[in-house]
Design brief:
With about 190 residues, the protein is mainly alpha-helical. About 45% of the residues lie in helices and about 5% in strands. The chain has a two-stranded antiparallel sheet.
């Protein structure tokens, strides 16, 4: 009487050869979540630069209207915030899609929290970068009438868009990505 063959997963030796046995500790193929988090937070610098370049009362390349270059014009305040909101939404969707994992490996809860916190830090960095660009390269504004006449963010709730978009993208990515059950692997008949 013959015993049925056991299909034990193979572990690779350091020289690349396979060795049968019990699997070792699971390792992430995507690398450390800190690298992804640092990249997301660092993305705040180009997002802030883009905000200043595109938004009214900044360089205003989006509309090109000369009347919207002055921050004392009340009509510039809402579009300025909306440009930053759109950039945050785009950055959040991209970061969330990159962080959502693959169909074979999904992010852990810790990875999701780190990514969302990195997005919040990236939003703060983008805001600071845009305001700093406005101070350095913008028009001199008389802020006696209000701080919003200078290049700034009128609504601080916009800062929550980037982390929220990351969280929603990771959630939707894990919801709609078909996961493969390791027990249902290819079996020879």
């Amino acid at each position: 009487m013959t015993q049925p063959a056991l299909n034990l997963p193979a572990r690779q030796l350091e020289d690349g050869r396979d060795r049968p046995g019990r699997p070792g500790p699971a390792r992430s193929r995507r690398g450390a979540p800190w690298r992804m988090a640092a990249a997301i937070a660092a993305a705040g610098v180009p997002v802030g630069l883009l905000w200043w370049v595109l938004a009214p009362s900044g360089l205003n390349l989006l509309s090109g209207n000369a009347e919207l270059r002055n921050g004392s014009n009340l009509e510039t305040w809402l579009p300025r915030d909306l440009v930053l909101a759109a950039l945050f939404l785009l950055a959040g969707c991209i970061a969330g899609a990159l962080s959502s994992g693959t169909k074979h490996e999904e992010p852990s809860g810790r990875d999701v929290v780190i990514t969302v916190l990195a997005a919040a830090l990236g939003a703060a960095i983008a805001w600071g970068t845009g305001v700093l660009c406005g101070v350095w390269w913008g028009h001199a504004a008389d802020t006696v009438a209000g701080a919003s006449t200078a290049f700034s963010l009128r609504s601080s709730a916009v800062l929550a868009i980037w982390p929220a978009a990351v969280a929603l993208s990771i959630f939707l990515g894990s919801l709609f990505t078909a996961r493969r059950n390791p027990d249902d692997g290819d079996r020879a008949a």
